[in-house]
Design brief:
Elements lengths: L1 E4 L9 E7 L4 H14 L8 H18 L8 E8 L2 E8 L20 H8 L2 E6 L5 E7 L6
Helix pairs in contact: 1-2, 2-3
Protein name: ATP-binding protein
Keywords: ATP-binding, Kinase, Nucleotide-binding, Serine/threonine-protein kinase, Transferase
InterPro entries: Anti-sigma-factor_SerPK (IPR050267), HATPase_C_sf (IPR036890), HATPase_dom (IPR003594)
């Protein structure tokens, strides 16, 4: 796994960190672990556990629904925007395939975006500037003013 982190964010670079992950199940736990480690120095006031849950769901979806003809990676980036935290998960899938589902009680899948929708202040999906799809969430007031 490769990762990068910006330890000294400034106005021109609000990115706090990023990681790239192979599209395999083990990457979900890696994403949780590395996000916890790299967000800790910034001392967010929001629930890191909630963020980790949402990252788990989005990375799982990226791995499950991402597709490309050749080898590909999932990319996770997190940004400070004023007092908010924005986390993006990129994969090479098609943006049109991202939708909020309402599964039946006996459905085994389909609750990831429902969890994100219920936990985040907002979320968005669309074309990624890396190509493919990005799904992001925002936690408002992640840092005191």
């Amino acid at each position: 796994m490769a990762y990068t982190i910006d330890r000294y964010p400034c106005e021109e670079s609000p990115r706090l960190g990023a990681m790239t992950l192979h599209p395999e199940p083990e990457s979900v736990s890696r994403a949780r672990r590395w996000f916890r480690k790299f967000i800790a120095p910034y001392n967010p006031a929001c629930s890191v556990d909630d963020c980790v849950l949402m990252i788990s769901e989005l990375v799982t979806n990226a791995i499950r629904y991402g597709e490309a003809e050749g080898p590909w990676l999932v990319r996770v980036e997190w940004f400070r925007e004023g007092t908010s935290l924005r986390v993006e998960v990129h994969n090479p899938g098609f943006p049109a395939s991202v939708r909020l589902r309402h599964p039946d009680a006996d459905d085994a899948h389909g609750r990831g975006l429902l969890l994100v929708d219920a936990t985040a202040d907002s979320w968005h999906s669309g074309p990624s500037h890396f190509g493919g799809t990005v799904v992001s969430f925002v936690v408002a007031d992640a840092w005191p003013t």
